[in-house]
Amino acid sequence: MLSIKLEQGVNNNSAVIEKKPAELKNKSPKYKVLLHNDPVNSMEYVTISLREVVPQLSEQDAIAIMLEAHNTGIGLVIVCDLEPAEFYSESLKSKGISSSIEKED
Predict the structure, then answer these.
(1) What torsion, rounded to 10 degrees, do the Cα atoms 73, 78, 83, 89 define?
(2) φ and ψ at 73, to 5 degrees?
(3) Of 47, 60, 74, 102, which is least surrounded by CB within 10 A?
(4) CATH no. for residue 67?
(5) Which H helix or E strand runs over 44?
(6) Does the predicted model carry a pTM greater than 0.70?
(7) Is residue 12 one of the residues assigned to a domain?
(8) Is 17 part of a structural domain of the chain?
(9) CB-based contacts of 89: which residues, under 8 Å, 6+ apart?
């Protein structure tokens, strides 16, 4: 957004154009990376794999996500933009772990 502000100087008048940050009207949609219950791999393997694929997860977070998936059938790993969500989900799948992405409401 541009705004024009008139300033009165000692010897003359001048117009100053100010740029103001525009509000983000169309934020990019966010996506949930989901971990599905895994009856094949060990809980330890799933926890380690989560931390390898999503390095910002703490050990406690990875354990909580794994337990959520184990107990409820699905666990929320992370919410992010589409490209990293696809990367995280595909990386988990490449380790033999069931994962999907879903658009956040």
Answers:
(1) -30
(2) 100, -20
(3) 60
(4) 3.30.1390.10
(5) helix 43-53
(6) yes
(7) no
(8) no
(9) 33, 34, 99, 100, 101
Domain span at residue 49 reads 31-103
User: Bigger pLDDT: 87 or 8?
Assistant: 87
Sign of CA dihedral 32, 35, 36, 37: negative
Total domains present in the chain: 1
Q: Is the predicted pLDDT of residue 7 greater than 70, yes or no?
A: no
Percent of the chain whose predicted confidence (pLDDT) is above 70: 75
Give the C-alpha distances (Å, rounded to integers) separating 41 from 31, 49, 69, 72: 25, 10, 13, 17
pLDDT tens digits, one per residue of 11-49: 666 565 555 555 555 688 999 999 999 899 999 999 999
Give the chain's mean pLDDT: 87
**What is the DSSP secondary-structure string of 51-65?**
HHHSTT--HHHHHHH
